[in-house]
Amino acid sequence: MSRSAPKSPAMPPSSPRRGLALGVIAASTLMIVLDGSIVTVAMPAIQHDLGFSSEGLSWVVNAYLVTFGSLLLLAGRLGDILGRKRMFVAGTAVFTASSLLAGLASGPAVLLAARFLQGVGSAMTAAVGLGILAALYPEGRERARALAVFSFTGAAGASIGQVLGGLLTDALDWHGIFLINLPIGAAVLALARPALPAGRGLGLRAGADAWGALLITAGLMAALYGIVNTATYGWTSPRALVPAAVGTALVVAFFLRQARARTPLLPLRMLRSRAVVTANLVQMLMIAALFAFQVLVALYLQGVLRYDAARTGLAMLPAALAIGATSLGVSARLIARYGERAVLRTALVPLIGALALLTRLPVHAAYATDLLPVMLLVAGFGLALPALTALGMSGVDSQDAGLASGLFNTTQQLGSALGVAALSTLAAGRTDTLTGQGSPRAEALTAGYHVAFAAGAGLLALALLAATILLRRPRVPEVAAVPSA
């Protein structure tokens, strides 16, 4: 049976509902991104209040990360089949309810269960949001502006989350970092029904490839579980190696199945697009470097410079403002004028410079001269992410928009997990070596961060190389002139 695109009523370009839909999706994305970063600043308070062990505390972040990252691809495909609006609304409801559960948690088990459910709700919502936008804004400068707004919520939201996390933790307590989601979630739910376009999806007859769904979900979950365990047990520990190897084998089995399945979960035709594949690869490398940058800078501020939670969050604020200024202010115009490829390559240069500067951080740093220039250079992220988002959704059929959105978000989560695991392990290894040799703790920590930031700059350099080589515009053959009669 042939498949048709999801049935969504067309919205005229001037329709106010389309702008409202963009606002709803942006608010939902901001809520999800905030939740991923707002927790990091409040971790010491959560550990003290609920009695988490050091190992158990890491799962306040990891329970969310593993479920979110592993379910995105499945949620994106189910959105195409069952209807993206239906998936978006259901995911927002799950996320909002689990945020209430997290905010009321009185013990570690309840908080971890709530974080697991938050990851489920986030995957359901994030997997289809970009697909809905791609259908509402099919082309042109309006699409570039919409993607800039969407990208801003992802790019700057993490920094804003750290600011809010610090302020809420100091002013109230850690419960507030979860309860703040309730009014946002309620507003999104109230506005989503009238704002988002209706659509029944492809229908269950299109097939969901249950075995493929099981393979990719279990594979990503096992791989992410292994990756996040490296931060606690190291890369050579069986607790990291075994689940990572099992997950990799399951993902390989998934792709083998997709080549033969009648109704594949991930049609391999999507991977024939060089722009889509390269955008996801470059994004994974870039996010790996920059998410780790965010985590490690916060640790440096608190562990070496002895900043408190609120001051740490405020120290990251210039990065959020710089990203917002470029993403919302100039990215759409630059992309419309020069194209996604040129903007992406140019934006990666200041990001490499930012991490290179961090390799020279002193133990007794002055914020204005040692850290503020770095925060301003991170503005390149506000240009790079909109360009990558446009490339990641380019040439995708409307029937696959939800899946492409899920794929794009999946590589983002994989990049986050890989970056934090790899760069944190490098930093910890160097710190332990120097501490064992008798170096003062602050100097050993700083030297460890230097190694991690250098590795992050290397990842960004690889991203620039991939973007330069793989995203060349195809040459258009010249047409010989036909002599006039």
Please, could you describe this protein's structure?
With 485 residues, the protein is mainly α. 77% of the residues lie in helices and 0% in strands. The chain has two domains: 16-197 and 265-470, MFS general substrate transporter like domains (Growth Hormone, Chain: A, Up-down Bundle), CATH 1.20.1250; 209-264. Helix 3 (84-103) runs antiparallel to helix 4, helix 4 packs across helix 18 (401-436) and helix 13 packs across helix 17 (381-392). It is globular, with a radius of gyration of 22 Å. Residues 1-14 and 476-485 have low confidence and may be disordered.
CATH hierarchy, class of the largest domain: Mainly Alpha
Determine the number of helices (DSSP H or I, runs of at least 4 residues). Answer: 19
In one word, what is the shape? globular
Order of helices and strands: HHHHHHHHHHHHHHHHHHH
Computed structural class: mainly alpha
CATH topology of the largest domain: Growth Hormone, Chain: A
Fourth-tier CATH superfamily name of the largest domain: MFS general substrate transporter like domains
CATH architecture of the largest domain: Up-down Bundle
Number of domains: 2
What radius of gyration results from the CA coordinates?
22 Å
The largest pleated sheet is described as: none
Q: Can you count the beta strands? A: 0
Q: What gap, in angstroms, lies between the N and C termini? A: 52 Å
| Range of strand content | under 5%
Helix content: over 70%
| Residue-averaged pLDDT | 83
Low-confidence sequence ranges: 1-14, 476-485
Keywords: Antibiotic resistance, Cell membrane, Membrane, Transmembrane, Transmembrane helix, Transport
Pfam families: MFS_1
Protein name: MFS transporter
Subcellular location: Cell membrane
